[in-house]
Recover the amino acids of this structure.
């Protein structure tokens, strides 16, 4: 699974980090940090996190 | 199911449409909206759109054109006949349905007293923001905002950033008061630093009119605030007047729905109607509850999640439908502060500052009720919130587990 975040769109709103905290987190400056290689079984949660993004900054490619 | 009608083309309605198609619904899908606009996203309106950092085309809801719906724009739904399964429209047309998604949203609450014919606005939709920008670009340099909830505070921030002199009046004493005293204090201080005059604890007596335009706002304490423009930002009312004859339960004007988002009928046990699901700001859902009953949620994340599930459950039918399982969350930004919340902070009986320091404008406030976590609010401490969301989720699973044991 390949996760791409569009930095131009991401506003650090952190909704993804609430849905899939195993994969998404905010740093001290509320900028998004994405785990490098999320486990395959998290695919459902990652998809939900992408849908929860208010600015549609997250795209996911299944591998 | 062959015909589905979605009433409302805001986020909840659009997500419902997308979700119907994603679930393989191939029948006729009609979306009805009283607005003429293409679907758009509301959170940026009072922030980026007023500030001018986003344009109207930036806030169009992506995906709305893609799900093969018949769009009826600029025509309000005026009635729901559940017996004959018809949505009645303002132009007299009737739309038959097998299933209907009610996502009508809300309107800005209007001032209850007399207002001058010109210069007093409410802000809820894109049209309102256009009018606001026209007034400001046309030279309104002195604006009074009545109400320091989310809309009032965001507008105060955006307008002061444009060089407008803003006075923010909050009769109930604190800005964003549902978030707790510590957060209100941080917001009030930041507003003051940005040059906004904050008047707390004083109500509005009325408006002065000069040749049909507002000239000033009179406060209860006798002070008079000159104003070229007034924004009344005192909350929203669900757009459900048209459902009055529908036989649905409408407590305080909201559409009461069960844990699976099926609309409850009025009277008796409030049996849910399997052909009617509810989503968004107008919903009053049994699955979103505080200790003493359901709570209305007027947030983006709720509209998105309910729209998606309502559509899925409508197709699945009540027996296979899933309960709405969502930790509430929202965000706002004003005066350089990033404010976010999880859970239902307004429903607590005690708040605890668990990180940061209100004095430096960064704070995490947890809200408890009878010792149990019910919500958390962050100002510039957003990285801490997901742990609170997880705790809220765990508490809920415990709660649900207990209920299952009991039945």
């Amino acid at each position: 699974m390949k996760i791409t975040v569009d930095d131009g769109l991401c506003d650090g709103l952190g909704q993804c980090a609430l849905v899939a905290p195993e994969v998404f987190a905010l740093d001290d400056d509320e900028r998004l940090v994405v785990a490098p290689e999320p486990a395959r079984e998290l695919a459902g949660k990652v998809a939900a996190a992408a849908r929860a993004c208010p600015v549609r900054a997250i795209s996911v490619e299944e591998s | 199911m062959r015909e589905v009608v979605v009433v409302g083309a805001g986020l909840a309605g659009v997500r419902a449409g997308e979700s119907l198609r994603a679930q393989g619904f191939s029948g006729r899908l009609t979306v009805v909206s009283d607005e003429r606009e293409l679907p758009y996203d509301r959170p940026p309106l009072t922030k980026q759109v007023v500030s001018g950092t986003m344009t109207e085309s930036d806030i169009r809801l992506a995906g709305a054109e893609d799900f093969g719906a018949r769009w009826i724009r600029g025509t309000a739904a005026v009635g729901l006949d559940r017996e004959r399964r018809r949505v009645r429209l303002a132009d007299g047309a009737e739309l038959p349905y097998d299933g209907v998604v009610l996502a009508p949203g809300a309107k800005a609450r209007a001032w209850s007293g007399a207002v001058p014919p010109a210069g007093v606005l409410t802000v809820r939709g894109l049209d309102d923001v256009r009018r606001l920008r026209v007034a400001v670009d046309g030279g309104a340099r002195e604006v009074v905002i009545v109400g320091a909830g989310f809309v009032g505070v965001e507008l105060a921030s955006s307008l002061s950033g444009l060089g407008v002199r803003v006075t923010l009046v909050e009769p109930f004493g604190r800005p964003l008061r549902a978030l707790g005293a510590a957060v209100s204090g941080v917001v009030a201080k930041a507003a003051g630093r940005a040059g906004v005059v904050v008047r707390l604890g004083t109500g509005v007596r009325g408006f002065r009119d000069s040749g049909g335009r507002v000239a000033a706002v009179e406060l209860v304490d006798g002070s008079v605030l000159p104003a070229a423009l007034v924004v009344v930002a005192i909350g929203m009312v669900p757009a459900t007047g048209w459902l009055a004859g529908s036989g649905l339960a409408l407590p305080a004007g909201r559409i009461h729905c069960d844990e699976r988002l099926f609309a409850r009928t009025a009277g008796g046990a409030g049996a849910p109607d399997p052909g009617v699901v509810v989503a968004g700001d107008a919903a009053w859902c049994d699955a979103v509850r505080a200790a003493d009953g359901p709570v209305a949620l007027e947030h983006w994340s709720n509209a998105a999640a309910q729209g998606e599930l309502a559509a899925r459950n409508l197709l699945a039918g009540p027996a296979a439908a899933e309960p709405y399982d969502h930790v509430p969350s929202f965000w706002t930004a004003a005066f350089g502060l990033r404010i976010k919340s999880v859970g239902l902070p307004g429903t607590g009986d005690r708040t605890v500052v668990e990180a940061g320091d209100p004095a430096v404008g960064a704070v995490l406030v947890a809200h408890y009720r009878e010792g149990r976590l019910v919500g958390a609010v962050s100002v510039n401490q957003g990285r801490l919130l997901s742990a609170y969301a997880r705790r809220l989720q765990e508490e809920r699973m415990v709660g649900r587990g207990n209920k299952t044991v009991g039945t």
In short: The first helix of chain B runs from residue 11 to 22. The radius of gyration of chain B is 22 Å.
